[in-house]
């Protein structure tokens, strides 16, 4: 299974000299309109006419599912598009179970709506005692998703976390009927990110202890850098205006990278392969990496994730951020660049516009 490399390099005369800072929201917007303006307008029209669709995001853990769908919503129609995470839903239900009144309501709901092999007591206890390793019964997930979706006005949803297992794939074929989206187009969005990239995203990840903002020392720094003279190490300082300038810290276990989740990644990979060979449902193929040898022809330099490093400036008495190209091997072993989210979203926009016949 190989995903095609999507070309986002500008060919139009005059445009190729423009360089965008894709971390800046205003420039990112201009970038999207330059690269996919026609498709964005058509999609906006599609949503304004009251249309919607259901998309299943399938990608390995930490592949950026939330980032891509949220960025798509941000540029196309934030009010009518929602990223729906099964994990978030389950965490919400965990809270409901701790509230006496809500707990009773939830149990009543399950009594009326759940059909399957487990007793009510078993279901509630599986919701309460769950560890991320145990999969909840599919029938339970389905009925809970249905309940969540019924609470909102009909929106386009990007479902993240379902199907999660091989036996859940066939359920997804009937899913839109189940949630009352019968006439909507449904589509699989398959995301391919090299494991080396996922590994680095985890290993260099740091989190603000106060506001939980998550950044990456090598791939996504904040604007403020600190320097520990004794240990000779640089660190990131929180730059969230609502927070304080505190040091972002690595999370326990992150130094292991993908090691502890190898099995999970393997399973996710199988799931993507299965979905890839599914007939009768359209598929969007998103690819995070571009082989180095194709980069010049397919992408602009500013669309590539750089690696950040730091230097101490004796003159200014502060740490300065520097950038250099970051090359990571893809899963086939070719030296590759990792794309920043916006060019991947450009390919999502164009492929969706095509699938929806816009
Ligand atoms: Zn903070």
Q: Main traits of this protein?
A:
358 residues, alpha/beta, 5-stranded parallel beta sheet, 3-stranded antiparallel beta sheet, 12 helices, 14 strands, globular, binds zinc ion
As residue ranges, the low-confidence spans are none
Q: What is the rounded Rg?
A: 22 Å
Molecular shape: globular
Give the cofactors and ligands: zinc ion
Structural class: alpha/beta
- Note the main sheet: 5 strands, parallel
Describe the fold and architecture.
The chain is an alpha/beta fold. Helix content is 40%, strand content 20%. The protein has twelve helices and 14 strands. Strands 2-3-1-4-9 form a five-stranded parallel beta sheet. Strands 10-14-13 form a three-stranded antiparallel beta sheet. A hairpin with a 4-residue loop joins β7 (224-228) and β8 (233-237). α1 runs parallel beside α12 and α2 (65-76) crosses α12. The mean pLDDT is 92.
